[in-house]
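debug: dumping io for the single-chain case to check the tokenizer round-trip. Nothing else runs in this session.
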Amino acid sequence: MMMTASQKLNKYWRVLATGISFVFFGMGGVVLTFIIFPVLTLCIKNKTRRELKARKIIQQSFALFCGTMRFLGAIEYRFVGDKSFQEDENCIILANHPSLIDYVLIVSRLPQCVCLVKKSIWHNFFMKGVVQAAGYIQQQNGQSLIEDCDAWLKAGNVILIFPEGTRTTLGEISKLHRGAAQIAIKTKTDFRLLHISVNPPILTKQKKWYHVSDKKPLFEIKIKSKVRISDFIESGTLPSISVRNLSKYLEEHLFLSEIH
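debug: decoded output
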């Protein structure tokens, strides 16, 4: 169906609004990295207190960014069941990853969330100061990653992990890395599943930021019930078997939109 003149105008505006939003995001990252967080370091000497404050600032900044995208008409979004986040402490949040701003949307509602981030983010000009100030965990192989996650979880933190490791490729069956299941099993931590859908798709792995759809995309973030890790750990069962069982569970449930 051919778009009307007003629909075309709206689409062009959303391209501009998306561009403005990401310029705003980049400027915000620079301000946080080179002004806000250095001042925070000078004012708060205790590392734990400083990281707590940094994560709160990040949450408020991301909430402002998401609100700006909504105000400009670039996107719409809604959370379902986000009051459940108030119950979470010493918990792993596992989410699917359809778009570039999934992390931003989730953290905008979680004032104290530690994220597992790719090594490339630690060298990103706009983001490196943010992840370092917040005490985020760098993805790495081996026992040290498990130990880092275990220490953060025992301190009562929530850790956000995208088991896909990267954004979903449209039209392909998602493959999950076993790292998320290994962390949950080896730290013996309960987890919560979170499902993100965006219709029509935007900011996907295949689309540039300016590839906007004919109508405004709607992000829906559904927070599911918490799952007990004890359901996957049986006495006498090898950890590798428990990891395999949990990975299978995630493959079957992570991408379902229904809240169980």
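debug: round-trip ok. Residues 55 and 162 are 19 Å apart (CA to CA).
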